[in-house]
Specification:
The complex is a heterodimer. Chain A is of the alpha+beta class. Helices cover 38% and strands 31% of the residues of chain A. In chain A, the strands form two sheets. In chain A, strands 1-2-3-5-4 form a five-stranded mixed beta barrel. Chain A has a two-stranded antiparallel sheet with strand order 6-7. In chain A, strand 1 and strand 2 form a beta hairpin. The chains are: A alpha+beta, B mainly alpha. Chains A and B meet through helix 1, strand 4, strand 5, helix 4 and strand 7 of A and helix 1, helix 2, strand 1, strand 2 and helix 4 of B.
Chain lengths: 159, 162
């Protein structure tokens, strides 16, 4: 199969860019992807909205946990202060109430450090995938493509 | 799934099944692993704090990469980096790896009870989550590791190279 790679590559990159913009147009600011910045800027207009937010525990206020989501700061009805530690990551789903409160419907806590650990383990996964691939494939610099390592020269195809 | 290692290990098991049950050459097994890693390319934007926003009035979101459309686009780009005679098989394995990633992410705990619109741009539907594990849980990775180890040893025994 002889195809011109560059035009297809450019078309696929354009498709990816279109998807990134299309997703933003369709979902930015939606209940599934609320914008903490927009909520913070015009809080009163968002009171009553059901939102799903990911924040960090920064302390307590009047017996309620305070979460920071970017610039937005919210006192949430759950989790209770005894259930979390400062620095924990918490995803909350609930309804925005006056005075920058969130009436929590459901939440899930991720302890401090667990996200860092997840990223560290993920780096191992990335290295494993890259290592396994490069063990079987090598770069053919002349034709700017990957070719199998075993018998690559004999099997090489020129476009 | 909790982390990229679990996704890659699951794709290893999937890829091993594909090469064992079909005439797909063994060298394509790691292609599925790369495919499974691809949707998480957008996590780099999470670390940089630029996942979504607006540029010159145009909204954007790199969550698009973590969808069916993103998987197809990245698989196409990846397949073009492979020599022509292996390209179709590579594309299929990259797609399979990417699809396995999205499928396993349907089990992640989400407080709102729904998963992201993984079928974008075909559909904006938010599927219900199975709520089995958190993205930071280690036990799914341990399960994937155990399964991958069994497959690895089995392949070694049958004369493969693991």
């Amino acid at each position: 199969m002889h195809v011109r790679r560059l035009p297809i590559l450019l078309a696929l990159c354009a498709l990816l860019a279109a998807l990134v913009v299309g997703f933003g147009v369709q979902f930015n600011g939606s209940p599934a992807y609320p914008s903490s910045q927009e909520i913070d800027d015009e809080y009163a207009a968002h009171v009553g909205d059901d939102v799903h937010l990911w924040g960090e525990v920064v302390g307590t206020e009047d017996g309620r946990v305070v979460l920071e989501i970017g610039e937005l700061s919210l006192a949430v009805t759950a989790p209770p202060p005894r259930a979390v530690d400062v620095g924990d990551s918490v995803q909350v789903y609930g309804t925005l109430a006056p005075d920058r409160r969130l009436e929590t419907v459901a939440y899930h806590r991720q302890p401090t450090g667990s996200l860092v650990r997840m990223y560290a383990v993920s780096v191992v996964g990335l290295a494993l995938a890259a290592g396994a691939f490069l063990r079987r494939w090598r770069v053919d610099t002349e034709h700017r493509q990957f070719v199998p390592r075993n018998g690559a020269a004999a099997e090489r195809e020129v476009e | 799934m909790p982390d990229l290692l679990a996704h890659v290990l699951a794709a290893y098991v999937l890829g091993a099944a594909v090469v064992a049950l079909t005439d797909v050459p063994d060298r394509h097994l790691p292609v599925a692993m790369v495919g499974a890693a691809a949707p998480d390319a957008m996590k780099a934007t999470v670390l940089l704090g630029i996942t979504s926003g607006t540029v010159a009035g145009v909204p954007y979101s790199f969550w698009a990469v973590h969808t069916l459309g993103g998987v197809v686009a990245l698989a196409g780009i990846g397949a073009l980096t492979i020599r022509a005679s292996d390209r179709r098989t590579t594309l299929a394995l990259l797609l399979a790896g990417g699809a396995s990633h999205l499928l396993l992410d349907l089990f992640v705990i989400r407080a709102d009870g729904v998963a992201p619109p993984y079928l974008f741009p075909v559909s904006g539907w938010l599927p219900p989550t199975a709520t089995v594990y958190a993205s930071t849980d280690l036990w799914p990775t341990a399960v994937a590791l155990a399964l991958a180890l069994v497959v690895f040893l089995s392949r070694l025994r049958s004369g493969g190279d693991g």
